[in-house]
Amino acid sequence: MRRIVYGAGVIVTTDDVADALMQLTAALANLGQTAHVRVPAAADTPDRHHDVAMIVGPGIPMLTEPAGWQGEEPDFSTSATLFRMHPAYPYPNVPGARTLSAPAEVDNWDPDLDGY
């Protein structure tokens, strides 16, 4: 289990969800975008949980740290999968695949070499 510190709040969720959320948050920040997400948070007992609404993206600091947990971890795998399905989630480049980021324009002009 991981504790996510976000703004003035703290939530506890699974390692899988915390990792997927951190990857998505970093990708959104890199693209200069934000997203509204719902994060499953564990309550004080293993059989209870609730969803926390968050805005993630650039300029919003987030960190995760290990959290002590007694008992069986809840199954939040669906939420982790949904984070990984977000269009901004970072995946290795696949030839021909659509991406949100614009291709970088390369300027090969070198004024010291008259453009060569």
UniProtKB/TrEMBL annotation:
It comes from Microbacterium radiodurans. It comes from the Bacteria. This is Uncharacterized protein.
